[in-house]
Amino acid sequence: MSAPGPLLRVRDLCVTFPARRGRPPVRAVDHVSFDIEPGQTLGLVGESGSGKTTTGRAILQLQPASGGSVRLLGQELTAMRRADLRAMRRHMQFVLQNPYSSLHPRMTVAQILAEPLTVHRSVPRERIPERVAELMTLVGMDPKVVHRYPHEFSGGQRQRVVIARALAVNPDFVVCDEPVSALDVRTQAQIVDLLHSLQEKLRLSYLFIAHDLAIVRAVAHRVAVMYGGRLVELGDAARVYDSPAHPYTRNLLDAVPIPDPARQRAKLAEAAPEPQFRGRDGETGPCVFGEDHAASGTPAWHEVAPGHGVSCRFWPPGACPGQELPRI
């Protein structure tokens, strides 16, 4: 299956959770739009609660969307019947955050990897053991250990099994939701290298969800920054990191610790005091916009450079009289 243009096209995607216990409905994803090209990685970053995981789940139709369009390989997913959507799941897969909880503890690795092959009838039944061995080799593991259970492996090995399971049906698009956050630094680097090599070998496209900006910089071609369910900046990774246009993006980058203690102390000493703002749920917190974001509506989308956009009422710099872009 192929289609001209982007592999994935998301337009005005919205997800609203209903009111509970007297609290108003929550718009977790608010008119999010982006494209992902074949063989490309889009890094989706933002603080906890910004809507990153909900966006990934809504794209895969694991979370019902309240509005908008999701087209994969030219096919509209949001309006698909269940049978057609099941067939499309061969083209899109999910790598979950925690390898310790995402593998069935009573199934062997062979059974775990054979399950999607059986469900989607990807290979003849007699070829399943051979395909399982191929998948183990693909992710850098010895096929001889397929009869072991998940608890017999380290965290990094379990995540390799999770990746192998996602690749079992030869998908075109994979959502990686914080795939290395539960691992130590050395193992993180190994998994990132594995994802790189698999992308080059299989021409995979990734939506890489993370809060660790250093990891995202290492894997992403383009970066989308989320705040309060909205995209506030989107562009090529190098440009977003080297010339961030939105104050929230600057905040995220400023929050990355520096491994030199002296430089880190100097950086903290230079930090400006934190003004306050009223968030979408009425709580007060650090201001990244310089005014009440919820009450003043969604800022317009400005093109900073070709392929680099920002949603900010303080763009261009100096749009707010008498002050620079807010910085925390």
From TrEMBL:
<dbReference type="GO" id="GO:0005886">
    <property type="term" value="C:plasma membrane"/>
</dbReference>
<feature type="region of interest" description="Disordered">
    <location>
        <begin position="270"/>
        <end position="292"/>
    </location>
</feature>
<dbReference type="Pfam" id="PF00005">
    <property type="entry name" value="ABC_tran"/>
</dbReference>
<keyword id="KW-0813">Transport</keyword>
<protein>
    <submittedName>
        <fullName>ATP-binding cassette domain-containing protein</fullName>
    </submittedName>
</protein>
<dbReference type="InterPro" id="IPR017871">
    <property type="entry name" value="ABC_transporter-like_CS"/>
</dbReference>
<keyword id="KW-0067">ATP-binding</keyword>
<comment type="similarity">
    <text>Belongs to the ABC transporter superfamily.</text>
</comment>
<dbReference type="GO" id="GO:0005524">
    <property type="term" value="F:ATP binding"/>
</dbReference>
<feature type="domain" description="ABC transporter">
    <location>
        <begin position="8"/>
        <end position="253"/>
    </location>
</feature>
<dbReference type="InterPro" id="IPR050319">
    <property type="entry name" value="ABC_transp_ATP-bind"/>
</dbReference>
<keyword id="KW-0547">Nucleotide-binding</keyword>
<dbReference type="GO" id="GO:0015833">
    <property type="term" value="P:peptide transport"/>
</dbReference>
<dbReference type="Pfam" id="PF08352">
    <property type="entry name" value="oligo_HPY"/>
</dbReference>
<dbReference type="InterPro" id="IPR003439">
    <property type="entry name" value="ABC_transporter-like_ATP-bd"/>
</dbReference>
<dbReference type="InterPro" id="IPR003593">
    <property type="entry name" value="AAA+_ATPase"/>
</dbReference>
<dbReference type="GO" id="GO:0055085">
    <property type="term" value="P:transmembrane transport"/>
</dbReference>
<dbReference type="InterPro" id="IPR013563">
    <property type="entry name" value="Oligopep_ABC_C"/>
</dbReference>
<dbReference type="GO" id="GO:0016887">
    <property type="term" value="F:ATP hydrolysis activity"/>
</dbReference>
<dbReference type="InterPro" id="IPR027417">
    <property type="entry name" value="P-loop_NTPase"/>
</dbReference>
